[in-house]
Protein 1
Amino acid sequence: MAEVRLVDIEKKYGNFLAVPKQSLTIHDGEFLVLLGPSGCGKTTTMRMIAGLEDITSGDIMIKGERINDKPPKDRDIAMVFQNYGLYPHMTVRQNIEYPLKLRGMPKADRKDRVRETAEKVELDALLERRPSELSGGQRQRVALARAIVRTPSIFLMDEPLSNLDAKLRVTMRAELKHLHHELGVTTVYVTHDQMEAMTLANRVAVMREGKIVQLDTPKKIYAEPADLFVAGFIGSPSMNLIDGAVKDGVFRADGVEVPVDLADHDGVVLGIRPEELDITQDPGAAISGKLYALELTGESTLVTLRNGPSSVCARGHADFEADIDSPCHLAPKEGARIHLFDRATGERLL
Amino acid sequence: MKDRLLPYWLLIPAFIIVLATTIYPLAYSFITSFRAWDLTKSRRPEGFVGLDNYIYAASESQFLNSLWVTFIFVITSVILTVILAMALALLLRRKGPMHTFTRIILILPFAMSPALIGVSYRFMFNPEFGVIANGLGAVFPALQGVPWLADPQLAMGILVLTDVWHWTPYMTFMCLGGLASIPRETEEAARIDGASNLRIIFGIILPQMRGVILVMAVLKTIFALKMFDQVVTLTGGGPGTSTETLAYFIFNVGFRWFDMGYASALAWILTAIMMFISIWYVRMLLSERKMATA
């Protein structure tokens, strides 16, 4: 059982607190994604698990054993780096073989294992090439092969897809998902791309300023963001966040009037996802303004309307057409989830 | 039309200066190498002697000795400098105030004049009052009164030492530059894969430093081949001719024995050796660049 537990771990660089005290349990076989903007401490957290970064205080437990003082090689982990971390002077075969060689595996066994692994990631035809002769996607596959070849208990992946182009990223994402399904190895994955997090993870830990602000399934995080930061960070296009106030059971802002189940409250931010808004001709609709932009995405059209400083985006039918600056009205769909947050603290109110 | 020619007109002064200071002396010495010219008898080169100066060099024992001395000096100083520089760079590549401070003071030996280094070491290895000679004698009594610069092997050792001391800082900076270009991830990946520190150095870092090390070795070889200043001020080529490098021997032939024809031939032999190494160096640089962009 390869469960990873972080118990009150903290990381300081001099006086700078990079990761404040926090705990996290990653279950056996789970695909956990650490998600957050640049500088939020997600890579530092992963590097502490890997043993590449000392922890200032707290404990890291792998399979129930405290591994704080164990060097990286004794933690039974494999890591895939953002820049692949391949050995440029070695061929693909030598790159994949290297961890086995270091662990003293006999040559014949090594050969078989390298062949099997290369087949798994479709690299068998490229074994004699050097990394400089490979494309980005192929390099990433070599890095993956090197990680899986010695069947570690835990995979650590530090933004492994961020150097690939958008199309290749989608392909590799599916391959990673399939690989995890096939191997069932506990995986910790760091990314700032919420789409990657949503598609790959069993659970997502959203991080901000070193702290985990929400830890839950992708579905739950999308449906019930814990605070204003998570609400704005998850989703593409992101959730509409409208500044206003609640009075007499109605949220009010410029051109917006939405009935809500909340006591009077100033400084409220209303959140609603674009796909939960309908475009309507009704001038009395909850949200009104002028059409600001139309963006065809293929399967739908993103309709942005503006009223004063705030803009609201809705996902409409791909055939939707209207003139820019013409009056436009939006209404929450039947059963739409309306989120309310406190503007000052960011906390969820409803 | 005038505008098109203007750049060429503007280049003419620089061209004349280069011609006068480089091309003319080179051509003059090349022609002189095929002539007899005893400076004590004639102010101008005398008759053509064909390849006689070069043929004579091939059989003259003092020239062959200087070639051998130069060979020993180049090999030892290049190997020691490169190894020391690499080791120092590995120690100094981490960030920190002590590392930065050490990196700054490390440049001092390279800033010193080679002639001054020779004089300083001559004093420091003086058996009577030299600080190093006395220090070594105090720590190891067997070394008391050792005539450091009067022994052929020790004198060569000290000559190499001064050169290594002079060049190691610069080479260390070259190594630091090379190390900085190695992605941190390869080293970390090796650490996770299970490599020990020594294995990371020899199996991961050094292979990636191959290009830098080659460039360092070639550059150091070219400079070591020209070793002159420290020989003059430290050993004077002695004891006997045990530290008489090729550059120093050429100086002796030309300006002590005044045989300018022979000295010119010897200078061109040294130039040919250095040109051969330089061409190899350029070819290697080009192939490294090709590898880097592959």
Protein 2
Amino acid sequence: MKLPDAQRAVLEAASANEARSIDRLTAEADLPDPTVVGATFTLEEEGLVTLTERVETDATLTEEGREYADTELPELALHEAVVAAGGETDLGSAIDEAGLNGPQVDIALSNFSRKGYGTIDSGQISAAPDANPTDDPERLALAALADGEPIDDESVLDGLAGRNLVAREETTVREVTLTDDGVTALMEGIETTDTVGALTPEMLTTGEWRDADFAAYNVEADAERAQAGRLHPLRRTAERVTDVLVGMGFEEMDGPHADAEFWINDCLFMPQDHPARTHWDQFTLADPDAIDDLPDELVAGVEHAHREGVGPDGDGYHSPWSADVARRLSLRGHTTSLSARHLAGVATGELEPPQRLFSVEKVYRNDTLDATHLLEFFQIEGLVMAEDLSVRDLMGTFTEFYAQFGITDLEFKPTYNPYTEPSFELFGEHPTTGELVEIGNSGLFRPEMLDPLGVDCDVMAWGLALERLLMLTHGFEDIRDVHGTLVDLDFLRNAEVVY
Amino acid sequence: MPVVDVDPDELRRFTGHGEKGDDELLDDLFELGLEFEGETEDGLFQLEFEADRLDRLSVEGVARSLRYQYGDDSGVYVPSTNDADWTIEVDESVPDERPYVTGAVIRGLDLDAAGLDSLIQLQEKLHATMGRGRAKGAIGIHDLTMLKGRSRVEGGENSISYRGIDPDGESFVPLDSNDELTPAEVLTDHPIGETYAPLLDGYERYPAIYDDLGLFSFPPVINGRRTEVNTGSRELFVELTGTDQWTIDRMCTIICYALDARGATIERVSVEYPDRTLDRPDFETDEKTVTHRRIERALGIDVDEREVIDLLERAGLDAESDGEADALSYRVSIPPYRTDVLHPVDVIDDIGRAYGFNRLEPEYPDVSTVGGRHERSRHERAIRETLVGLGFEDLLNFHLIGESVNFDRMGLSPADDALGAAEPATIAEPYSRDYETVRTWALPSLLMVLENNTHRRYPQELAEVGLAAHVDSDENTNVAEERRVAGVLARTDASYEDVKGRLASLARAFDVELATPATDHPSFIEGRVASVVLDGEHAGVVGELHPETLVEHGLEVPVVGFELRADALR
């Protein structure tokens, strides 16, 4: 019979007459434990050995047990002191004489009486004349355990374990016995097969590999996880949104983060004294505080829309308007500023319909920082520009977009935005919790926005926080874990890749 | 968005739908766009409103909208008014900063406690919204029986006068006080006065309203105690002052509509400016013309003329059609409490709401366009992919940063001649010191991530492609915005050679030639820092971070890193 080296060694170390433990085989075969275990399982499968399991109880001395083994059990020390004092004395001096203190006093007293070493009465202690401390079973057992000898008397062990002098531990011992086939195989003689550990370049060039028998690895054993570079989960989501939008025919916009309020608010028909303009609590810049130039004609048109409205029976706002406010710089509170720049033709030149434009970019809001609000976050901004667009086109576009992220059954709740009419908040069902959550804001841009920008067709647009989409699709609860310098590297290293 | 407390019992009373349970009402309100936020201790609904429908800031207005929704009412309603018996005379002395006034007289009112609360709430909500915190418009409501009118001419009408007075020129007992105070004293000694004092900054003369007995209202701050309204008040004088006549007239209209709904009679007042006289309140309807074609186009529906008129009336508007077929249009009357209808599109929105937007079938627009990414975003993606391939964790940090984190903690000063040293764009009113400027470079953010992750497994190899900015007067916005590529290697055996090796690989990937001549940078160890020169252009810095920088960030392993302009990899 041909067997690998390890299996032969195990077979030779085993006996037909005596069950031998794996530990013993490991010692005799002089091989690592996992190798022996592995070889044993293989031999058992081949019917050459039997493997049995036995539960063994091991008793070892606790720290306290060892102390008494080295000195004396407290009750015996007490007995000795009483005998030395003539067989009877007062309790206090006996305790002192026996050198007992702390909890040992109680231990000594209770066991002294229990084991019949004497009696205690009214502060007097006397030794029983027939006591035989030398043969105290607990004392003998402690001494034996200290010498590494086994104890057979279970009741004594129970007593010692009850006194916390002995700790008992159950271990499973695997034992191996040769089967008849195993004996036969040994008698017929076993050849060792040549196994190869590592495949070497030399083996490949010489062709030695052709005769090699590769040692089997434990392919189930754990390996240390490799650390790889990964794309940030939020970035990955942004990339996916970008893929979807590009696939739907949208072209990406780019533009400044720090911009004039003209582009951020005034072009969006936000009155300069509108509560939203303060409630949004934009990040106004102190340094620098204004843009150098705005297109004069555009500024005049926007101011006119604010003051007088657009169209023969249009009304404007009854609010102050000044070009100084329009020139004020701010970090953009939404990327609709990019839409305004593009529609005005200052970003990429005059736009002719049809157009689909988008961006997935940072916006900044002076909000309260909490689990669902960040001071800066990504906004998905999209617009469609065409000759004739209806509310139904808007609904159709969003239905397609959100379906790509598993969000279906959209609800469109009419709402108010200064720069769109009609306007809708979008609600969708959370893919896992089933609850209805707000997933975006949308509408048809108002004539008061489009007319000054020189757009004379329809434009529909929408915005959505990317982080909200990520929370919906990943089920994250605290957005601060994801975005920013407080990020936990373990989170980045373990986040599931979503595609 | 404003939140208004509404008593469900009052809502049932004003809608005439006593049979509706709370849940049913809440469903109806949601349809209207009013979201239930919770209940007050007294069981009032807290409803969140959209900022456009200011006529719904009280239970009366909400009930009016519900009655239209239920079909109980239709078309425009305008309350009838009685002729003016009172005049508001506007004196030449009125402060230039607050020249406008308007008002109305209310008679035959029966106010219970709930009604009084509702009136006070409406006043507060109008102050907060249209009134812009009382700056643009402020409302004073008085018990008319406590006013003594004075006629300028024998046998003339009762009048009060709006004037500008010396801040200490008169004294009166304001609400919630027992002391006679001058307006100037109110601003310093009365809690409400302190709150609104900033509104009068820079005023030489203070606004004041007088009757025959003296000053009884100090707008926009506080009324006098003499004319205080209580549940026994049957007749009211409502006055509003502000910076815009239209705004205060509309605020007045909304209050009059609410009190009309409570069964009161509205009596006009005559507002006499030196150069003109106004008859107020102004309940004139506005008109918008909207074409049938535009309605169908915007909503994507086919409707007939009768249906459009029906929908408009259900929205509380009136309409007359004009023309036929392609020329069919509607002249739509808008009631005066609607402050939000600026353009025919707003009428179309009302039609859509009455029709039910959720009845519309989504339709993918039949518009063909070609999609694509911006060159910058393709470039950034390519850099990110390369960095990830080199083993870096991709990071996404905030662009806002504390100035000390950006400079001091890196051992850098804005005046240094080194990468990252520049004047930062600064926020006027930062949320906290942690977010007060836009970062001028990216490495401080990476160091912060290392600092927050010292308990995590090393090596830590991090990179970011992101924005950095600084003040630059050559730019139109005066801010130069740049994309930066930054990376750090933090581990016990991190070496300059490691980081330069990664950098060389990055340069190779983008086919640019890397040179690293020695340089100085205060964040790095002298002699272990180089300029990153790509195709002969200075693009950034690479080196071993200074122990001072590391200790400052609580790091116990060496860190090597680089930062360069993404542009240089083009």
